Amino acid sequence: MPAQRLSDRHPEIAADELVASMVPPPRFDHVRFENYLPNPDEPSQMAALAACREFAERVAAGRPTRGWLGGWLGGGQKSRQQPGLYLDGGFGVGKTHLLASAWHAAPGPKAYGTFVELTHLVGALGFAEAVRRLADHRLLAIDEFELDDPGDTMLITRLLAALTDAGVFVAATSNTLPDRLGEGRFAADDFLREIHSMAARFGVVRVEGPDYRHRGLPDPPEPMSDDDLAASAEALPGATLDDFDELCAHLARLHPSRYGPLVDGVAAVHLRGVHAAPDQDVALRLVSLADRLYDRAIPVAVSGQPLSALFTEEMLGGGYRKKYLRALSRLVALSREVASPVPRSAG
């Protein structure tokens, strides 16, 4: 039987389901502080683990009162006076593991989502309704925090101000320090006041180290032939097989917040005729898709060019460099799971 196509799927999410669906993705269902393994050569990872534990304990201890930003803990450390914890560092150092662990350790109500999912939530519900539904939460966890355009800057600044003023704790991960969000992507200087206002709400914890996904592992598999790719897809129940260009066109018709439901239940993704993304818009959609595939631990197999060729040298040298490198790290890890299945790490 021919494999299914992602290009034939058109997932929909009702507005009322959006908040209820804000939980860690399957890959991070079972992560906890106890199974985070700091790299012994990177002391910042142990320090980040301790900081996240302390943050989760503060969330569990009770909601601060309005206006706590200036003096909830009196003369304590500045980071302890801030309603947010911000994990900054390169890809593959376990930031998402720590974020999800903090979410699991905190009492509810609580919400967890990617930055893209959060902006979509506000767009679907409206700003006032999104604030109303989240303001009674103890914790909002935001993975892959980025500001890619001025509209997002204004929207998320207002949202975080409203939520933290209401006493909601916020934890986030990113590859960019909060006061440098948007740098190199739009006229960030015009929005420095908003960016700095948001950054002031976070205590920053740096997480250093090499990409754990590729430590001591073999090189990724070479692309398959088209015939072998089709045979692989047909042999695995629940696998999909798509022409790369057709899938890219399909992604353009879907909001990135739907990419998760697009691949829910898929056993493996097979992409025929992979080549470099033709422009930045396509490339950023592929980053979002790669993140959702990784969240769900869905293996990826390709024909055509290798995954390492997905983003051009110009793209890798631009403002979205860290996003592209993260996507490549995750896709290469997923490609190994097709050729030679390995235990799926939750980090």
Task: Please supply descriptive tags for the structure shown above.
347 residues, alpha/beta, Rossmann fold, globular
Task: Describe this protein's structure.
InterPro entries: ATPase_AFG1-like (IPR005654), P-loop_NTPase (IPR027417). GO terms for molecular function: ATP binding; ATP hydrolysis activity. Keywords: ATP-binding, Cell cycle, Cell division, Nucleotide-binding. This is Cell division protein ZapE. With 347 residues, the protein is of the alpha/beta class. It folds into 2 domains: 40-209, Rossmann fold, CATH 3.40.50.300; 213-339, 3-Layer(aba) Sandwich (Rossmann fold). Helices cover 42% and strands 13% of the residues. It has 14 helices and 8 strands. The strands form 2 sheets. A 5-stranded parallel sheet has the order 2-3-4-1-5, with helices on both faces. A 3-stranded parallel sheet has the order 6-7-8. The longest helix has 19 residues, at 43-61. Residues 65-80, 182-192 and 339-347 have low confidence and may be disordered.
Quick structural summary:
Strand 3 (139-143), helix 7 (150-165) and strand 4 (169-174) form a beta-alpha-beta unit. The protein is built from 14 helices and eight strands. It is an alpha/beta fold and 347 residues long.
Would you spell out the secondary-structure blueprint of this structure?
Layout: H1 15-20, H2 43-61, H3 78-81, E1 84-89, H4 95-105, E2 110-114, H5 115-125, H6 127-134, E3 139-143, H7 150-165, E4 169-174, H8 192-199, E5 202-207, H9 226-235, E6 239-243, H10 244-252, H11 259-263, E7 268-274, H12 280-295, E8 300-304, H13 313-316, H14 321-339
Helix pairs in contact: 2-4, 5-6, 6-7, 7-8, 12-14
GO biological process, one term: cell division
Pfam families: AFG1_ATPase
Keywords: ATP-binding, Cell cycle, Cell division, Nucleotide-binding
